[in-house]
Each structure stands twice: as C-alpha cells, then as structure tokens.
Amino acid sequence: MKYRIANLSDLEPILQMKNEVKERIQKENLPIWLGDYPLDSMIEEDIQNGYGRVIEDLNTIVGYACFHPAEEEYPQELFQKKPLQSFGRVMVRNGYVGKHYGSFLVKSMIDEAKSMHLEGMGIAVDACNIKAVRLYEKHGFKKEGSYQFPYAYLDMYGLYFK
Length: 162
Prior knowledge:
The chain is an alpha+beta fold. It has a single domain, classed as Aminopeptidase, CATH 3.40.630. It is built from 5 helices and 7 strands. A 7-stranded mixed sheet has the order 1-2-3-4-5-7-6. The relative contact order is 0.16.
C-alpha cells in the first residue's frame, strides 16, 4: 500500500470510486452523502488545492480522502484546540472494504498531521455511520460534541497530539 498526494491524473479513477461508494451507501440504507455530495467539482478542487490523498495498491487507487486545515471546512471553531488538520470525503473502493485500507488511510493522515507539528486533527461524522465512527475511535478520536450544519447534524471528533 502506498499513501500519497493525489494529482489531476487521478481524478477519473477517484470519481469512478466515488460513484461505486455512493451506490454501496444507498444499498446499505445509510442516510449520508445524499444528493450530489460529494460533487465531482469538490474532489477536483481538493486535488487542485493539494488536499486530495489516495491509497494505491498494485497501481490501483483504492482509497481517497480530502486532507485540509480544519478551519477551512469548519469555520465555526468547533474543536477544542487549533491549529488542526481535518479530513473528509473518506472512501474505499468496493471490494477493498474490511481489508484495513480505510485504517491505513486514516493512520497515514494522522502521521502526516503529526509531521506538520499541529495540535491534532478533527473530523465531523454522521452518527449513523457506525463503521466510520468505530474507525476514528480506534485511532484515538474522541467525541467532543455535535453541530447542526446546513446540510446535516454531525458529531465532532478530535484527536490531539500534545
């Protein structure tokens, strides 16, 4: 497995993976990623801004996340400390779920954030997304509260390094 910054040549395989993941989410009856979210343009913008991260296995992109400063995604200062790094739009290609790719992606982002000498990381997650909540808690994230965003009511989780 390899963790790296995404580039624009990765856009098509990432968008294909996103569509697969959205189908899986719908089949699992999870009320997340509703409508057009995440927009293709959001993912393209993630990559253009240097925030896209991918996991590759045997030259196949099997995971993606947006890795960005928390204040860009959550201007409400929802976390206990700052500066923080955050991540979102986490996805693992169908056929690779349950094989620790998501865990490797989260761990790699934590390691990258630590190397940036930040206070920690923050993430917002829908409480019904039990697999994601378990994954984040496994890596040490703790629930700090909840917040009503215009698009969803989400739980806020923080992981602090210092």
